[in-house]
DNA sequence: TTATCTTTTAACAATACTATAACAATACTA
DNA sequence: TAGTATTGTTATAGTATTGTTAAAAGATAA
């Protein structure tokens, strides 16, 4: 299923996490400071990084920033204290999830699996279903088509990729920058016009009433969110 | 933990499975042909479907196909013969697992548990929602919304960012300059009017009595403080 | 107490953001 | 290459959000 990297100065904890995820079919590698972590990330391809806030030398936030300059891997942070400042700081800096120490191992494993799924679901369609099914909407990966109330449409590349990106982050807000970088694979230069045009074309196909969309909802000032209620 | 649906024409077997999974804390419902199964699936929400290939009327594969047009529930199929054709057929049609009759009940239960675990994790990244929770106030990062006494509000960008900044410095005094530089990301030029307007709008949403605020407290001459007692 | 200063709030103005249509440019396909 | 499909761009209108102003309330200090 993949390999994760654990960066935490608590050696016992690293080994413990490794054992737990291996039981789920996930490999794990670990190191005990930010610097080593960054060089490991350059050597090998990982699915996810677990990062402790409190470490000697470079702390978790600094490490996070460094990693984020080159990678969009999902990152889960351990906040040592249950303080909101760390949570907010971590989220702003680009962590995808956080967990407060001490934690229950089952919860950690569940979050790891969920994060990995979220980020790799579409690159490696695991198993059999090559489609995403929602109430009243079916996204078919084999044909790059959608089956919606308005009929079946083969979607052009940008439209399909945008829809998949949104649906893959179901319930989460995605910024226009994220959409752009994921779909266009180019640097985002503050121009949303084409994204908005694509969204408009998508909605015309999948939404019963594009003016009050059921699936692709707009989050003003930020981006869009694929409705998790469907 | 949830409820499963068994579709099998063998009535005794249905009852037996039901007893076995109830011992694991899982409810079970059953019916004896594909048609009834499909209508049951429309009525109630199940965690998993067990489906027999050999049934009078609509057979298992046909039922499976029907189910898959509207649902991505995990489906475990019983193949009556140990022939690979059935297995392959079932898996291709969208089953998530199969078991050959006759089977050992323990194995069935183990597979059911495993499938439910996989599926519920897959489908509930919202279990991992990122939020800050206070007494009577919940800040939800996924929706950029607050849930307060006055109701749930999706906050506009400046309001949300301001609230998060305050809550992230819970118990600490933050100056208007800090707020401005964090939220507006511009140089602060001695103009608080808009910050005060934002605070006023925020309080109207999250405070029961905006005139004597519980969460966002005024520190005259300096700025504000998010109450640490909440 | 008064004088001064800050904050609150409402009302309004200005701005920023979004949706969509229409068209232009580009990419793809036969 | 022509023809078509897709994407990018521009313009416009509508709306939500933010900024500004002013009046009133509250705090602070002499």
Description of the structure:
Two copies of one chain form a homodimer. With 230 residues, the first copy, chain A, is α/β, with parallel strands linked by helices. The first copy, chain A, is 40% helix and 22% strand. Chain A is built from eight helices and twelve strands. Chain A starts with a strand and ends with a strand. Mean pLDDT of chain A is 85; it is low at 122-129. At the A-B interface, helix 4 and helix 5 of A face helix 3 and helix 6 of B. Chain A binds a DNA duplex (30 and 30 nucleotides) through residues 156-159, 191-194, 196-201, 203-204, 210-211, 218, 220-221.
Domain module count of chain A: 2
CATH class of the largest domain in chain A reads Alpha Beta
Shape of chain A: elongated
Instruction: Give the terminus-to-terminus CA distance of chain A.
Output: 28 Å
Using only CA atoms, what is the Rg of chain A? 19 Å
**What is the strand arrangement across the widest sheet of chain A?**
2-1-3-4-5
Helix residue percentage of chain A = 40-55%
Labels describing this entry:
alpha/beta; Arc Repressor Mutant, subunit A; 8 helices; DNA-binding; homodimer; Rossmann fold; 230 residues; 4-stranded antiparallel sheet
Task: Indicate the topology.
Two copies of one chain form a homodimer.
Chain A: E1 3-7, H1 11-22, E2 27-31, H2 34-43, E3 48-52, H3 60-70, E4 75-79, H4 84-93, E5 97-100, H5 105-120, E6 131-134, E7 137-140, E8 145-148, E9 151-154, H6 157-168, E10 173-175, H7 176-183, H8 193-206, E11 216-219, E12 223-226
Helix pairs in contact in A: 2-3, 6-8
The first copy, chain A, binds a DNA duplex (30 and 30 nucleotides) through helix 6 and helix 8.
